[in-house]
Input
Amino acid sequence: MNNIGKKIFLIPTRLVPDDIIGIAAPASSFARESFCRGTNVLESMGFRTYIPDDIFKKKGYLAGSDWHRADLLNRLFADKKIKAIICARGGFGSVRMLSFLDFGAIRKNPKIFIGFSDISAILSVLHTKCGLVTFHGPVLTTLGDADQKTREAMVSAFSSGNILEIKPKNGITVKRGSASGPVSGGNLCTLCHLSGTPFESGFKGHILFLEDRGEASYKIDRMLTQMKLAGCFEGLAGLLLGSFRDCGMLDEILRIVGNIFRENDIPILAGFEAGHGMPNITIPMGLEATLDADAHLLSFHEPATSL
Output
């Protein structure tokens, strides 16, 4: 447990070989073939996996009812044998089950939690409601087909005591400068849909990370404009842009971002290798870092896990 000013945050325990990683399914249903490939990768890394008996339930396009999906996640957090939790898939559904999460129990049992895309809703809420440092990174069904850099970045974030420094291969400085603050964010569409709900995130003083997939540039503009009008970007410290796969020309996305944040005197760095593309590096969320947009570098201030 650490303090950022008056804010307390929880750092999960570091993984070691033979630790058990539990599988959660808080959103869409998934294909068993890609699920099994992902579990094979985790086991090849030296970890054991725990697959709940009822994880393969389906209800329409979801992995079971809202209550069922939340109950499965609550059980994984409460189980002392489970040292980390990875989500099977994103898709849709995480927002629907947030009201059923037991935040008190989660605070008492902090552990590594990883996912991306629709899982951004849970990453955000676990930090907001519990102060838990979470991880934006692969879900199980993408891990089996992930490249080596993606897999190595995940293991490093989970198992290394090193302080992470992330430097994108093809970084683009949109606005110069540097700033420090906790890193937060995730999928733009998902975070936009949290606005106006009891689970809305506050980004004041934060370095905000955003990525998306399959959204036309005018939709990117619309979502950013909505969040700006809702006050989500007031007091923002910095901005990181990950992959915007199948969202049109990158130049157009950067033009939109430049316009939305024209009044914000903040560093903005694009080209971060995280999101729906490959590689999809793992980023600790809720942990203090410094963004240097000129040097194309995100430097965390301490390890993302504790002994």
